[in-house]
Specification:
The complex is a heterodimer of chains A (116) and B (109). Chain A has one domain (4-115): Immunoglobulins (Immunoglobulin-like, Sandwich). Helices cover 0% and strands 49% of the residues of chain A. Chain A has no helices and eleven strands. In chain A, the strands form two sheets. In chain A, strands 2, 4, 5, 6, 9, 10 and 11 form a seven-stranded mixed β-sheet that branches. A four-stranded antiparallel β-sheet of chain A has the order 1-3-8-7, with no helix packed on it. Chain A is globular. In chain B, strands 2, 4, 5, 9, 10 and 11 form a six-stranded mixed β-sheet that branches. Chain B has a five-stranded antiparallel β-sheet with strand order 1-3-8-7-6, with no helix packed on it. Chain B has strands spanning 3-7, 10-14, 19-26, 32-38, 44-49, 56-58, 61-66, 71-76, 85-92, 97-99, 103-108. Chain B has 109 residues and is mainly β. Chain B has one domain (3-108): Immunoglobulins (Immunoglobulin-like), CATH 2.60.40.10. Classes of the chains: A mainly beta (116), B mainly beta (109).
């Protein structure tokens, strides 16, 4: 009963390096999201996807790219990491219940990224 | 611009106290409002509210939504140290959700 799984859970990067965070969900959810959480800032939406092959920008998309090649996976990429991207990243998924999107979000455990 | 504002931002109470956390919103295309509790890791779901005036209750926690005045409250009675967490409010507006900054609750023995 995995739910939403994020890998890696911790990573330290140097400025300018690239990396990819992987999110996998086994609940057949249509919607997937990437958030970042910084102290005192709550959860801020980076990018989201409403289905396989589709992505959209959220509130803070700059410096990040995403892809949703398979329904169960949502990848978040940092092409050239910056210290401002030091944060905890959460992936989440949600079902589209008969076309009514009021359902609860299911979160992964988080990935702590430090950029030096 | 969509806004979800939680108050207070932080709160320290003693065990046994009752607390009320507030969430006000200005969001187009409102669908529902969600409350989450976040301890060390991922947020965990507490309540989903869609209808005005109907209280949701789970043990010592309860929540209500006022769609006319655009706010929700989360009440915790007889607080325990295990209630110490960040409480997040989120408004569902179609596909994206808009989160507030959270209220950090600390319950001391």
């Amino acid at each position: 009963n995995a739910g939403v799984t994020q890998t890696p859970k911790f990573r330290v990067l140097k400025t300018g390096q690239s990396m990819t965070l992987l999110c996998a969900q086994d609940m057949n959810h249509e919607y997937m999201y990437w958030y970042r959480q910084d102290p005192g800032m709550g959860l801020r939406l980076i990018h989201y996807s409403v289905g396989e092959g589709t992505t959209a920008k959220g509130e803070v998309p700059d410096g990040y790219n995403v892809s949703r090649l398979k329904k169960q996976n949502f990848l978040l990429g940092l092409e050239s990491a910056a210290p401002s991207q030091t944060s905890v990243y959460f992936c989440a998924s949600r079902a589209n219940l008969a076309g009514v999107t009021t359902g609860e979000l299911f979160f992964g455990e988080g990935s702590r990224l430090t950029v030096l | 611009e969509d806004k979800v504002v939680q108050s207070p931002l932080s709160l320290v109470v003693h065990e046994g106290d009752t607390v009320t956390l507030n969430c006000s919103y200005e969001v187009t295309n409102f669908r529902s409002l969600l409350w989450y509790k976040q301890e060390k890791k991922a947020p965990t779901f507490l309540f989903m509210l869609t209808s005005s005036g109907i209280e949701k209750k789970s043990g010592r926690l309860s929540s209500i939504l006022d769609k006319k005045e655009l706010f929700s409250i989360l009440n915790i009675t007889a607080t325990q140290t295990g209630d110490s967490a960040i409480y997040l409010c989120a408004v569902v507006k179609g596909t994206p959700l808009v989160f507030g900054k959270g209220t950090r609750l600390s319950v001391i023995a």
